[in-house]
Amino acid sequence: MRVGIGYDIHRLAKGRRLVLGGVEIPCGRGLLGHSDADALTHAVCDALLGAAGLGDIGRHFPDTDQRYRGISSLKLLATTVATVRAAGFEVENIDVTVVLQEPRLAPLIREMEETLAGTLGIEASRINVKAATNEGLDAVGRGEAIAAWAAACVAEKHRA
Ligand code: MG
Question: Rounded to the nearest 10 degrees, how much is the dihedral formed by the CA atoms of 68, 72, 75, 77?
């Protein structure tokens, strides 16, 4: 078994779609970034890459690469998990905490887990998504940004 962690934060801006865990969320603002800026999914990618010892999302998907402009982060996650599997690992479980002041994510958590699981090709029971506020503190608490932490556990099947 090997474990990895991931962290990401993106600014909120008007005129952008809000996508978290691959699910579009009705909101007056969205996250700013080169891709769809899905901070939750980016944190999951980094946790998986970390667990497999394969570097980070910036190395695999540089934001200077025009191929990734506006791309769904689920596509980045699909490529990430394919890379992790090619290196001889299988995903055991993923745990995520997304930190945001609003909107409330509780009604959408299950859909996020199922969407991520579908992209990863694993059972939804192996993915846990949690949401927390930042108690009004710092940029996240002021509603200027959304952050996410993820942990991933992978099992060595065979070493490439
Ligand atoms: Mg990011």
Answer: 100
C-alpha distances out from residue 141 to 42, 96, 137, 138, 147, Å: 20, 18, 4, 5, 10
Over the stretch 3-30, which tens digit does the pLDDT of each residue have? 999 999 999 999 999 999 999 999 889 9
Give distance in angstroms: CA of 41 to centre of ligand 1.
Answer: 8
| 123 Cα–ligand 1 center, Å | 25
User: 26 C-alpha to center of ligand 1: Å?
Assistant: 20
State which amino acid sits at residue 138: D
Interval between CA 39 and ligand 1 midpoint (Å): 5
| Strand-pair category, 2-14 with 145-156 | antiparallel
Q: Output the CA 126–ligand 1 centroid distance in Å.
A: 23
CA of 125 from ligand 1 middle (Å) equals 25
Question: Where are the extended beta strands (E) located within 39-160?
Answer: 89-99, 127-132, 145-156
For the stretch 114-157, pLDDT in tens is 999 999 999 999 999 999 999 999 999 999 999 999 999 999 98
